[in-house]
Design a protein that fits this description.
The protein has one domain: ABC transporter involved in vitamin B12 uptake, BtuC (Orthogonal Bundle). 72% of the residues lie in helices and 2% in strands. It starts with a strand and ends with a helix.
Length: 354
């Protein structure tokens, strides 16, 4: 068995859990607990909150959480490596402004959107370069790029808004799949989910991501190109954030420099609530999706129950704190239990006849 101790966290991460059968790793986990909590909240909301189970409510719920679902995919991979990207929401705003300005200048929505995604890749590459080549902490880098990208968005458009978008594209952003309550944005999300799930859970690249989160030095000696891996993830985060900005713009029919302000906090809260360790090295996408939906369902149910936005933010904050604290508590309980078992085995061995 291999152990890796993370300095400053007080937690020892081991590979022991990966020796358990797949069914146990899937069912006995924090991700499963989040899924069960999500189902419980949905059940209570449908029983106690009027109109919560209606198709219209489900449609607007998914429309609201769609940007968070999209951005949470690359954010999960970044946090598993032990890094973070706080600039994603400002990239949503910059992408929104670019689509508005470029379309106003005569470009079609697809061309304007493609340029916005390219700019998102460039923004992610800047973050990745500063983190991997220059060696700066990702927290400091992305706080700076958060201000930079938001400043560019506001500077390009000022306090005005571009609202003259073709009805076809705005209707498409709000459309539903056939006669169901599922919005069309779920289709590109599912495509990206499959891509990121395969990348993280079924490829050597994904195993390298977990290795980096456990120990960058050990990953390097194992042949993982740590800097290249992190750089790619930051570029992916920029591209997906830009795509989310395009959807955000068309859904609300408005390009503004302050679009999606504060969205990065909701994304990070959902990722951590979904079982990803803030220290890196563990997490799974199915738990993250459940975390996003849990926050969305809880917020939607409370709004329908006439709970104020401040109270909803407090509840979300409490959930986030508990999700972070629970990791250390569970590690402590696990270590205590393992020590007690070893002590019991030692006592048995000492008193057994030879």
């Amino acid at each position: 068995m291999s152990d890796t101790t993370l300095a400053g966290t007080g937690a020892t991460r081991t590979y022991r859990d990966y020796g358990h059968p797949l069914w146990r790793r899937l069912l006995v986990s924090r991700e499963s607990a989040v899924i069960l909590l999500l189902l419980l909240v949905i059940g209570v909301a449908m029983l106690r909150v009027n109109n919560f189970g209606s198709p219209l409510t489900m449609t607007y719920l998914l429309l609201d959480v769609a940007p968070i679902l999209l951005i949470a995919l690359p954010m999960t991979l970044i946090i598993i490596t032990g890094e973070i990207d706080l600039s994603v929401a400002s990239m949503v705003g910059l992408s929104s402004v670019l689509v508005g300005i470029l379309h106003q200048g005569g470009l079609s929505i697809p061309v304007a959107g493609l340029i916005a995604v390219i700019v998102g890749c460039i923004g992610g590459a800047i973050n990745g370069f500063l983190v991997t080549v220059v060696g700066l902490p990702s927290l400091a880098v992305t706080i700076g790029s958060l201000a930079l990208y938001r400043g560019l968005a506001v500077g390009l458009l000022g306090t005005t808004a571009v609202t003259d978008f073709p009805q076809f594209w705005t209707d498409l952003a709000k459309s539903k799949i056939g006669g169901t309550a599922l919005p069309s944005i779920i289709v590109p999300f599912l495509v990206l989910l499959v891509v990121f799930a395969l990348l993280l859970h079924f490829t050597p690249f994904g195993r390298g991501i977990y290795s980096i989160g456990l120990s960058s030095e050990a990953a390097t000696f194992s042949g993982v190109n740590v800097n290249r891996t992190k750089f790619i993830l930051f570029v992916l985060a920029g591209a997906v954030s830009a795509f989310a900005g395009i959807y955000y713009t068309l859904r609300f029919g408005s390009a503004r420099g302050d679009n999606a302000t504060g969205l990065e906090l909701q994304v990070i809260a959902a990722v951590l609530l979904g079982g990803v360790s803030i220290f890196g090295g563990r997490g799974a996408l199915h738990g993250v999706i459940a975390g996003v939906l849990l926050i969305g369902v809880l917020g939607s149910a409370l709004r329908l129950a006439n709970v104020t936005a401040d109270v909803i933010n407090i509840i979300t904050g409490v959930l986030l704190v508990l999700s972070v604290v629970s990791t250390s508590v569970l590690v402590w309980l696990q270590n205590t239990w393992q020590k007690s078992r070893r002590s019991a085995r030692n006592r048995t061995a000492q008193h057994s006849p030879h």
